[in-house]
Amino acid sequence: MTQLPVYSASIEPAWIDYNGHVRDAYYGLVASYAVDDVMDHLGLNAAYRETTHCTLYTLELHLHYLHEVKSSDDLRVISSILDCDRKRIHLGCRFVCSRVSETVASADMMLLHVRQGEKPASASFPDAVLQTLEALKLGPEAREAFGPISRKIELKRR
């Protein structure tokens, strides 16, 4: 498992604003769908969620709009594990399209592994998932090169 899946989005006509480009909120929607693909890749799929009652909750999300994305663009999201610990994933997403040579948007988010129920609570990842996360985690140089962040999202070690 050397990399996470690349999510491809189909831009819907309703996503386009009066300026002719994708509305701000839809970047969050696309990032959310990319997280679903990441979850499946890590084994946190529908069967896992049903048997363990565990899933990922988004604690924080930062979006950066770098270039316009138009209705005619193809849009893909390249996800990376920026950091992780036994309960959390700091995930980065780079939005790309073939019309623009640079990243068109980026997002980074903090995801928490939660056992759902009457009183949801954080839960440790299974060992196999944690090993996969560690194997996929970017090195320090790649994390630094990920892209802009408005303020630092990081895992505070206890």
Describe the structure.
The longest helix is centred in the N-terminal third of the chain and has 19 residues, at 24-42. Strand 5 and strand 6 form a beta hairpin. It is globular and about 45 Å long. With 158 residues, it is α+β, with helices and mostly antiparallel strands. It has a single domain (6-144), classed as Thiol Ester Dehydrase, Chain A (Roll). Strands 1, 2, 3, 4, 5 and 6 form a six-stranded antiparallel beta sheet that branches. The model has no long low-confidence stretch (mean pLDDT 94). The chain contains four helices and six strands; from the N terminus they run βααβββββαα.
As a percent range, the share of helical residues equals 25-40%
CATH superfamily, please? Answer: Hotdog Thioesterase
How is the main sheet built? 6 strands, antiparallel
Q: Any idea how many domains?
A: 1
The assigned CATH architecture is: Roll
Q: Would you report the number of β strands? A: 6
The radius of gyration is 16 Å
CATH class: Alpha Beta
- As residue ranges, the low-confidence spans are none
Q: In CATH terms, what is the fold-level topology? A: Thiol Ester Dehydrase, Chain A
Overall spatial form: globular
| Structural class determined from secondary elements | alpha+beta
Mean pLDDT: 94
Report the end-to-end length measured between terminal Cα atoms: 29 Å
Number of helices: 4
Strand content: 25-35%
Name the helix and strand elements from N-terminus to C-terminus, one letter apiece: EHHEEEEEHH
